[in-house]
């Protein structure tokens, strides 16, 4: 399981919390170019693709939005949204985690969403 890379897979132990495309199915799909799995509380990174870093306040804001914390969406929208080109971020909550995926230009948002949601469905099914 990718959620604790050091525990069960010695190949992943060489780079704690940094998973390359061979081990990170979201990136390997081709629909997501960077991704992370964070705790549902937004206080820790469980895994991330190389070069994808979320700041602590970004993780907390994402967690507040996907857990429907009072005022979280309004606060996020009040800060303004910046769109650069045709890229995007997706966040999907499971029982214990939040999957965050970034898709680049040339990727259909629906394909990216389907990829992230499929992994989220699997994680929910196995208790994560």
UniProtKB/TrEMBL annotation:
Keywords: Actin-binding, Cytoplasm, Cytoskeleton. It comes from the Eukaryota. Its main location: cytoplasm. It holds the Pfam family Profilin. It is found in: Cytoplasm, Cytoskeleton. InterPro entries: PFN, PFN_euk, PFN_sf. Coiled coil: none annotated. Belongs to the profilin family. This is Profilin.
């Amino acid at each position: 399981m990718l959620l604790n890379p050091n525990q069960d897979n010695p190949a992943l132990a060489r780079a704690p919390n940094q998973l390359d495309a061979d081990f990170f199915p979201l990136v390997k799909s081709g629909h997501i170019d960077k991704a992370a799995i964070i705790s549902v509380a937004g206080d820790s990174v469980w895994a991330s693709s190389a070069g994808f870093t979320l700041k602590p306040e970004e993780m907390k804001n994402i967690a507040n939005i996907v857990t429907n914390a009072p005022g979280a969406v309004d606060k996020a929208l009040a800060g303004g949204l910046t769109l650069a080109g045709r890229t995007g971020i997706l966040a999907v909550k499971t029982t214990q985690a939040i999957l965050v995926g970034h898709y680049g230009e040339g990727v259909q948002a629906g394909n990216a969403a389907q990829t992230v949601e499929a992994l989220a469905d699997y994680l929910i099914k196995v208790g994560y």
